[in-house]
Amino acid sequence: MRRIAIYGKGGIGKSTTSANVTAAMTEMGLKVMQIGCDPKSDSTRLLLRGERCPTVLETLRDNGSVDLDDVVIEGTGGCLCVECGGPKPGTGCAGRGIIAAFETLERLGAVDRYRPDVIIYDVLGDVVCGGFAMPIRNGYANDVFIVTSGEMMALYAANNIAQAVGNFAGDGYARLGGIIQNSRNVEDEDALVDKACGEIGTSVIHRIPRDPAVQRCEDRMTTVIDGEPDSSQAAQYRLLAKKLLDLSEDRSGGMRGQ
Asked: How many CB atoms lie within 10 A of CB 232?
């Protein structure tokens, strides 16, 4: 089983990238579980055709307990969708919410029940606090990939995320697999991202071109893989999905792996 964390600054396109990767891997015949780790709880919306996925934390608050059937929802192609959720606006800590959601999924034996081939953690990377660093530091993910563009704040966030991965690397936790460039047509964008990679000590594994197909499909609440499967952009996401599989470790084990 491969356990991959995809990090990036909010608004950089990491959830769109994650969803299209999940759809592409599902198309390959793999069972993929995507876990959204953002209090906005919108990671899986394209995989559910715009339907809202009930979150682990919301279900806990409302019911006092959680069953896997309540929070693991089947998406397009048979992928499995989970949203951790977060506290009510203005109350609580989103990072602690992710910790609680992960512990709940582990206690309920989500991986043992569904036995996915791949778990994709889609993680907000603006602030890499203890909760948002959970996939890195607690052995849930094996490999971390960072989505960025050539924009200054996206690169700044990428550097912070890379530092967080490095801080825990010595403990045998997740390793940095590389950078995914989600292009925004910034002037000299490739050079800017390459320069940042040199400073971070990693490389670009794939450059996703900017393409209006992404927005067209999002307007219809679908991935490009499902909405425009024959497009050049769909081919880019399929290529990225294959690279992620090739670059990530295949380990047995549960949520954290053994």
From this structure: 11
Pairing of β 80-83 and β 204-208: unpaired
Task: Report, as residue numbers or ranges, the catalytic residues.
Answer: 9, 14, 40, 126
CA distances from 183 to 74, 147, 149, 180, 202 (A): 30, 10, 5, 9, 18
Using CA atoms, how far apart are residues 154 and 15, in angstroms rounded to an integer? Answer: 14
- Please tell me the distance from the alpha carbon of residue 119 to that of residue 236, in angstroms, as a whole number: 20
Q: Are 115 and 31 in contact (CB under 8 A)?
A: yes
Residue-wise pLDDT tens digits, 206-234:
999 999 999 999 999 999 999 999 999 99
d(CA 167, CA 122): 20
Q: Please write the tens of the pLDDT for every residue from 149-176.
A: 999 999 999 999 999 998 877 666 889 9
Specify whether the CB–CB gap between 33 and 114 falls below 8 A: yes
